[in-house]
């Protein structure tokens, strides 16, 4: 970038840039990474637009560009993706990959899936810090968003459970052989339950049977005995009435 300004002027302009840059960072933190528009913050909106133009015309220092890249600055207007579209992208990802977890290591930095993974991680971080707006939390919960790695692990196990049920028609997984780990996990669920209500709902939603084979048989026998006792009691009553008659 050609620059005829003296060093002092360059540094003065850089300080002004840093001031606006920090303002933008604060705005993004408060607005879930949604960039400003004319209504939400006209001053920052104009600054973003001008900065984008300077970048396009190669009229900006590299050190400024490096800072902008750290916050995924929209060097093109096409790169600004609203929250609602991210939700759609996430659902499309799940349709293709079977999960709402987007790996941060599997995809190249320039790919859309990598950018989506960064957004997912940002949502998790803000939620953990209690800085994610209520309406965003509701929208993400509605699609079954995975808030942490524990969610990811449970989702993987439930997906494996669904595949087993689809193949065999039941949830009684043996605790030996190729399904030993899953069988032990299911046995633990049935004996100890699961701590998180959200995870329990996920299991309920796939029709998981919380009672094991032995317990189901025991309950079935108890019920049969109750029926037999009722039938026997009715027979005794009828016999007693006949004798009285």
Strands, total number: 0
Order of helices and strands: HHHHHHHHHH
Number of domains: 4
| Helix content bin | 55-70%
Based on secondary structure, the structural category is: mainly alpha
Q: How many angstroms separate the termini?
A: 115 Å
Largest sheet: none
- Give Rg in angstroms: 30 Å
Report the uncertain regions: none
Q: What percentage of the residues does DSSP assign to strands (E)?
A: under 5%
Determine the number of helices (DSSP H or I, runs of at least 4 residues).
Answer: 10
Q: Average pLDDT, to the nearest integer? A: 85
Shape: elongated
Written description of the protein model:
There is one protein chain. The protein is mainly α and 245 residues long. The chain folds into 4 domains: 7-79, no CATH class; 83-142, no CATH class; 149-205, no CATH class; 220-245. The model has no long low-confidence stretch (mean pLDDT 85). It has helices at residues 7-30, 42-56, 62-70, 83-97, 112-128, 134-142, 149-168, 180-192, 197-205, 213-244. The radius of gyration is 30 Å and the shape is elongated.
Task: Indicate the topology.
Elements: H1 7-30, H2 42-56, H3 62-70, H4 83-97, H5 112-128, H6 134-142, H7 149-168, H8 180-192, H9 197-205, H10 213-244
Descriptors:
single chain, 245 residues, mainly alpha, 4 domains, elongated
Outline of the structure:
The chain is mainly alpha-helical.
């Amino acid at each position: 970038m050609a620059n005829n300004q003296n060093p002092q002027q360059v540094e003065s302009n850089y300080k002004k840039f840093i001031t606006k840059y920090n303002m933008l960072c604060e705005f993004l933190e408060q607005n879930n990474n949604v960039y400003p528009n004319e209504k939400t913050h006209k001053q920052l909106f104009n600054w973003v637009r001008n900065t984008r133009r300077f970048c396009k015309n190669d009229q900006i220092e590299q050190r400024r560009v490096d800072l902008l890249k750290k916050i995924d600055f929209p060097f093109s207007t096409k790169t600004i993706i609203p929250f609602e579209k991210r939700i759609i992208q996430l659902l499309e990802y799940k349709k293709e990959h079977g999960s709402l977890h987007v790996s941060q290591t599997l995809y190249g930095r320039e790919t859309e899936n990598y950018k989506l993974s960064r957004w997912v991680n940002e949502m998790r971080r803000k939620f953990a810090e209690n800085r994610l707006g209520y309406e965003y939390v509701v929208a993400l919960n509605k699609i079954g968003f995975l808030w942490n790695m524990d969610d990811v692990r449970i989702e993987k196990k439930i997906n494996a459970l669904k595949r087993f049920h689809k193949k065999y028609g039941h949830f009684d997984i043996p605790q030996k052989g190729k399904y030993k780990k899953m069988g032990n996990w299911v046995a633990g669920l049935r004996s100890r339950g699961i701590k998180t209500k959200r995870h329990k709902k996920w299991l309920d939603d796939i029709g998981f049977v919380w009672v094991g084979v032995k317990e189901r048989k025991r309950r079935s026998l108890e019920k049969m005995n109750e029926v037999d006792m009722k039938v026997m009691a009715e027979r005794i009553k009828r016999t007693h009435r006949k004798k009285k008659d």
